[in-house]
Amino acid sequence: IAGITQAPTSQILAAGRRMTLRCTQDMRHNAMYWYRQDLGLGLRLIHYSNTAGTTGKGEVPDGYSVSRANTDDFPLTLASAVPSQTSVYFCASSEGQERSKAFFGQGTRLTVV
Amino acid sequence: GQNIDQPTEMTATEGAIVQINCTYQTSGFNGLFWYQQHAGEAPTFLSYNVLDGLEEKGRFSSFLSRSKGYSYLLLKELQMKDSASYLCAVTDSNYQLIWGAGTKLIIKP
Question: Labelling A28: which of A91, A102, B14, B33 has CA 20 to 30 A away?
Answer without folding.
Answer: B33
